[in-house]
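Hello,

I think I submitted the N-carbamoyl-L-aspartate job twice by accident. Can you confirm which output corresponds to this input? Input:
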Amino acid sequence: MHILSTEQLTPEILKTIFDRTDEIVELLGNEESARSMATRHAGQAVCTLFYESSTRTRLSFERAADALGVGVISTENAAEFSSASKGETIEDTARVLDQYHLGAIIMRHPVTGMVSRAAAVCENTTIINAGDGKGEHPTQSLLDARTIYQRFGRLDNLKVVMGGDLANGRTVKSLAKLLANYDGNEFVFVSTPEFQMTKDILDYLKDKNIKYSLTDDMHEAFKKAEVVYWVRLQRERISKIVKPDLNFVIDQESMLALPEEAIVMHPLPRVGEIDPAIDSDERAWYFRQAQNGLYVRAALLDLILDKEI
Ligand code: NCD
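Support: Only one job matched these inputs. Its output is below.
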C-alpha cells in the first residue's frame, strides 16, 4: 500500500500506527533497547527523494530509519541534483528507484499529484507522500493526531480552530480530513477570503456531517477553542508580485482569549505568525508536536518494512 492521502488513515490503521508508536517511544527511551532496535531492519533501505525544501519531515524520517537500522539513500534537493534537472520524467526516476530493493521511497514535490504519478509506476516499493504541492501531507496529519491524542486522550468531540494561509497549506487539509473520521469535531477556519479553506475540503467535511464555520475574527474563535492549529503564509506557492494581506499573529494578547486546557499547534516552520514570547506558555505544543514526527514516522517505517501495512 502506498501512503498518499490522509483518506487512507482510517481509525483502524491509526490505532495500529499509534500502538507501534508507543512501543518505539519506549524502546528509544532506553539506551540498551534503542541499541537493539538499531539492528532491527539491518540490510533494508529507504530513499528520501525531496524536490522541495524540508527540515523536519526529511530529517525525522532519516533519523527514524537510523533508529531502526534502515539504510537511507537520499537526494536532498532532487530538483537540482537528480536527473530531473536534465528533463527526466518523474515516472522514469520512480521506475528506476523501484528496482533498487528499497522498502520505501519517501517523496516530496512542489506540484500536487506528482507523488501519485510516481506511485502509479512503482510495483515493488511503497511510496510515502511527504507533501505534494497544495495537496496533502499524510504523515504530518499522523503526528498532529498523535499530539492531539496525547493532550486530550481522544480524537472526537474537539473544537478545532485552524488559521493562516489555509488555501495553500497542505497540513491543515490533511488534518481536517483525518479528524473528519471522528464524531462531534467542529472546525472554525480563521483567514481572509483569499486564504480561506478550500471548497474541496469544506465539501468533504459537509459530506461527513462535520460542522464548520469561516471567520476572520481570531480572538472570537479562540474563546471556545481546544486545538488551535496555525500555519504560515505559503510564500513559495503564490505569485511573487502579490503582496498578501494576511496578518493573524498569535501573541501574548491573543493567548488571553484561549481557554486554559487548549493547545497551540503549528507544523513549523513559523515565520512570524507565532510570537516566540508564547513558547514558554504551557499551551504551546508545537515543539512537542515536532518530536512526535520522529516517533510516528519510525512506527510507520517499521510497519511498512515488516509488511504489516
Ligand atoms: C509543512 C509542509 O511542508 O507542508 N512543514 C512540515 O512538513 N512540517 C508546513 C509548511 O511548510 O508550512
